[in-house]
Specification:
Layout: H1 3-9, H2 11-29, H3 37-45, H4 49-64, H5 71-76, H6 82-106, H7 111-143, H8 149-177, H9 182-203, H10 219-232, H11 234-247, H12 256-263, H13 269-296, H14 298-318, H15 324-346, H16 356-384, H17 387-408
Helix pairs in contact: 2-8, 2-9, 3-4, 4-7, 4-16, 6-7, 6-9, 7-16, 8-9, 8-13, 11-16, 11-17, 13-14, 13-15, 14-15, 14-17, 16-17
């Protein structure tokens, strides 16, 4: 039996367990959303906008930057599931388990120490997710045929965001009913439970081994070969340029909830309500974006997602009351869902299968450099110019990235693969 036949034989099983993995993971993540819940938690420990802006910086940079340095490792591995399963348990999931007890024990007695431990655990989690991300993406590309990936990712995200609405409602109840820090500790504990359940689903993946025919090279030789890849693929170069420019459209994301809660003196439980709005927007967007991507490609989905993100910042800038922020977060959720789907999947289509991990690593790490700088720039803008300028400049940066993507980058499905 060929590899292709074996993959097709296990397709339904793999599709099911990986959709359940994604759905349960995103349900858990709704309890620790870095754009709503975690900034509110940190705002109880410090009012320093730099530290609040550190959350999206770590979320992006620690996740994206390591990926280029694991690509050669993934490329040589015959089984890709070992990365999210074997390494992912300790690298990505264990630190989430430790958030609840440390919050409960330290947040009131020693807020400074609680803040340090929180950032260490969150950085550990984000870096661990980045460590296994290339392996996970390559595994998905291997076990899910290209013409069904949009459906897979759309259903996964829809299921996760739909159940995430329930999770966000649970966060709102916990933060409203229980005093600080118990409400947050309960939320973090629920996150660890559902993220553990997701691990059991992904561990059930049936993946046939596939041995690379390319000669193994050292990490130093591998890294030295990357500039030549970039020079030969002009379309990929242009795509990365649009992503670097557009990354600064994320400067204001981590401040949306903090702004709404402080500007209108809202209770912390409102963060859970805004998270629910974001999850609903993300769920329905993914349900639509998945089939659209299968038919028209991920570039179009990415363009629509960026445009929705621009609109969310425009509304946030001029919102006359907090009710408008339900629309802000619904749009933000739709933008996040489409952006995540297209960002993950479009990198798989720039190259032939044997070079996929390299393209994934290049795409995510180069974008990650800009994504690391953007929240720090956002923190400086929030402190020196105010939230209005921050949201306006975020919208302008995203719009610039959208312009480059639309006019300079060709749909990779229409470009002959060079590798």
């Amino acid at each position: 039996m060929t590899i292709a036949q074996e993959i097709e034989r296990h397709y339904k099983h793999n599709f099911t367990v990986n959709v359940l993995d994604g759905a349960s993971f995103w349900l858990g993540y709704s309890f620790i959303t870095p754009t709503t819940i975690l900034p509110l938690y940190v705002s109880h420990l410090t009012h320093n906008p730099f530290l609040i802006g550190l959350i999206p910086m770590l979320s992006g940079a620690c996740y994206l930057l390591p990926q280029l340095f694991t690509s050669n490792w993934v490329q040589r591995s015959p089984l890709k599931k070992v990365f999210p399963v074997k390494y992912g348990f300790f690298a990505e999931r264990l630190p989430v388990f430790l958030m609840a007890p440390t919050t409960l024990l330290l947040a009131v007695r020693s807020p400074g120490l609680a803040l340090v431990i929180f950032f260490l655990l969150f950085a550990w989690h984000a870096a661990g997710a980045g460590l296994i991300a290339v392996g996970w993406q390559d595994m998905v590309a291997k076990i899910i045929p290209a013409n069904r990936r949009g459906l897979f990712f759309g259903l996964t995200q829809f299921g996760g965001m739909f159940t995430g609405v329930i999770g966000a409602s649970g966060v709102a109840i916990a933060l409203n009913r229980y005093p600080f820090p118990l409400g947050y500790a309960l939320s973090f504990g629920a996150a660890s439970l559902f993220i553990l359940i997701s691990w059991f689903f992904i561990a059930a993946t049936r993946e046939p081994p596939l041995y690379s025919q390319k000669e193994a090279v050292s990490q130093w030789q591998y890294l030295r070969s990357l500039p030549a890849i970039m020079r030969r693929d002009l379309n990929f170069q242009r795509y990365l340029t649009s992503q670097v420019v557009g990354a600064f459209g994320g400067m204001g994301i981590g401040f949306l909830t903090v702004y709404a809660v402080t500007h209108w003196q809202l209770p912390d439980s409102q963060g859970g309500n805004y998270t629910a709005a974001m999850m609903i927007g993300q769920a329905f967007a993914n349900l639509l974006f998945g089939p659209l991507a299968d038919r028209k490609g991920y570039k179009l989905v990415m363009e629509i997602s960026i445009a929705l993100g621009v609109l969310s910042f425009v509304i946030a800038t001029f919102a006359p009351n907090p009710l408008w922020f339900y629309a802000v977060f619904a749009l933000r959720g739709a933008a996040n869902g489409g952006g995540m789907m297209s960002g993950v999947m479009i990198a798989l289509e720039f190259s032939a299968p044997e070079m996929r991990p390299t393209y994934i690593g290049l795409s995510n790490t180069i974008y990650g450099i800009a994504a690391a700088i953007a929240p720090l720039a956002g923190s400086w803008l929030a402190e020196t110019t105010g939230y209005g300028w921050l949201f306006g400049l975020s919208a302008a940066s995203a719009l610039a990235g959208l312009t480059l993507l639309h006019w300079l980058v060709r749909e990779p499905r229409l470009v002959e693969k060079r590798w």
